[in-house]
Design a protein that fits this description.
Pfam families: PP2C_2. It comes from Tessaracoccus flavescens. The chain contains 16 helices and 16 strands. The protein has about 475 residues and is of the alpha+beta class. The chain has 2 domains: about 1-255, PPM-type phosphatase domain (Phosphatase 2c, domain 1, 4-Layer Sandwich), CATH 3.60.40; about 335-420 and about 465-469, no CATH class. Strand 5 (about 100-105) and strand 6 form a beta hairpin.
Length: about 475
């Protein structure tokens, strides 16, 4: 049997205005949760997940029980997110990663969803023990880009799976046998996205765990610190009753955000509960930041919540009456970016119609042709992109404009004629083709195609790239 020493560190970083990361560390558990959603309360989502883990942290007897326990933690955290979103629809869109492990003295029972990472340092060798659920990782898995290309990919922060209150979520689970001297690191992408594995290995080997955590965070800040940074480290040691009795510690948003009780947010909208609701974070007026956060989570199955909510509102209207006003009020609080007559446009309301009534109104039609956008974003606009406000919509259209202008320039470059190759005449040996026939009948026709303006077929990598034009 072994024991676990641990260190936990979480900070805002140099750019963000609030900490949407959380973490938890104890003699029996290590965990990082990285919230997302911009104004839609990423800090609340991460706090919910880490707090639920801390509340349910108990030593398990064996590996199977550890995996069952940590799966239960994730399910309960996800159910809490569902309840909060149902009570306050402005929270729809929040989500969080969950990356951590339980420890029973012999094994680690690991659970992972999202792009936070787990690393194992054993005998001086660093191994990543989690697999990112991200867009660029899927491209790496398919052989379409290399890890080096992924590190600088413009969409490296786009993730495919998180805990977000939806019924369907698919984490990874694994058992890892512990060895004396092992160091396990769990971190948010504010660390792993800014420093390379060699640096992580070097700093993680620092003798004092608190110093190791501080140096890792400092290295991320030295490389820009543009995201929240959370570092949780555990070291396997000889069994020690004192270490086993150390209290667990929460860090990050879990120490800063008050999680509303079930029903509290609903009461705040008209009930008598006097408890303070979830405090909205200080708004960030940067369109780039807000657009990035809104676009950070892109699930593979683009299911929306609003059809179910519409059905619920309709049912209430049929039973109690007055549902039309509730539906109207809900629609007025929603915005989305879509297409209008071939141009990118901003709408207030809900996509589609209800009983033959259009559920949205046009707020603004931009001068950005949908056809100018990269293929990936063209599809997103045609399927509509949900945003939280007109300010968020402005940030999204600004980003789309940049992408469209880039694509127009790329296409213009492709259509430029290629230089024609001029071949000087040479004497023909007896029996060679006569005048008017090509001197090189097997030569590639690429030059002729270039003169005709024919462009090359996009490669598989271009098709996979959201910015492919």
């Amino acid at each position: 049997m072994f024991s676990l020493r641990f260190a936990a560190h979480s900070e805002v970083g140099r750019v963000r205005k609030n900490n949407q990361d959380a973490g938890y560390a104890s003699p029996t558990m290590l965990l990082v949760t990285d919230g997302m959603g911009g104004a839609a309360a990423g800090d609340l989502a991460s706090a919910v997940a880490s707090t639920e883990a801390a509340r349910s942290d108990h030593r398990a007897a064996d590996g199977e029980e550890m995996l069952e326990r940590i799966a239960g933690m994730m399910a309960r955290a996800n159910a809490k997110l569902t309840d909060l979103i149902d009570e306050d629809l402005q929270l729809d869109g929040m989500g969080t990663t969950f990356c951590g492990a339980l420890f029973n003295g012999e094994q680690f029972g690991l659970a992972h969803i999202g792009d936070s990472r787990g690393y194992l340092l054993r005998d001086g060798e660093l191994t990543q023990v989690t697999h990112d659920h991200s867009w660029v990782q899927s491209l790496i898995d398919e052989g379409k880009i290399t890890p080096a290309q992924a590190a600088v990919h413009p969409h490296r922060s786009l993730i495919l799976k998180v805990l977000n209150g939806q019924n369907q979520f698919d984490p990874d689970y694994e058992l890892i046998d512990a060895e004396l001297g092992d160091r396990l690191l769990f971190c948010s992408d504010g660390l792993s996205g800014l420093i390379d594995d060699d640096t992580i290995a070097e700093l993680l080997a620092t003798e004092d765990l608190d110093e190791a955590a501080a140096q890792l965070a400092q290295a991320a800040n030295d490389n820009g610190g543009h995201d929240n940074i959370t570092v949780i480290i555990g070291e396997v040691t000889e069994q020690d009753d004192e270490l086993d009795a150390v209290e667990g510690v929460l860090v990050g948003s879990a120490t800063e955000v008050k999680i509303p009780r079930t029903g509290q947010l609903a009461m705040e909208r008209g009930g008598t509960d006097k408890g303070a609701p979830y405090p909205k974070p200080e708004p960030d007026n940067s369109p780039e930041h807000d657009a990035t956060e809104v676009a950070r989570y892109a699930p593979e199955d683009h299911k929306r919540r609003w059809p179910g909510l519409l059905a619920l509102i309709l049912a209430i209207a049929l039973v109690f009456g007055g549902g039309a006003w509730g539906l109207y009020a809900y629609g007025k609080s929603r915005y989305f970016v879509g297409a209008d007559d071939g141009y990118v446009a901003v709408y207030n309301g809900l996509p589609g119609g209800f009983l033959g009534i259009d559920m949205s109104t046009l707020v603004e039609r931009t001068d950005i042709p949908v056809a100018d956008l990269p293929r990936f974003f063209r599809r997103q606009v045609e399927q509509t992109i949900a945003v939280q406000s007109t300010e968020a919509a402005k940030g999204t259209t600004t980003e789309l404009r940049v992408l469209a202008e880039r694509c127009v320039e790329v296409r213009r470059e492709r259509q430029k004629p290629k230089p024609t190759i001029t071949v000087s005449p040479t004497p023909r040996p007896t029996g060679t083709p006569g005048p008017g026939l090509p001197l090189h009948p097997t030569a590639s026709p690429s030059v002729q195609e270039g003169n005709l303006g024919i462009t090359a077929t996009p490669t598989a990598t271009e098709e996979a790239d959201p910015e492919a034009c």
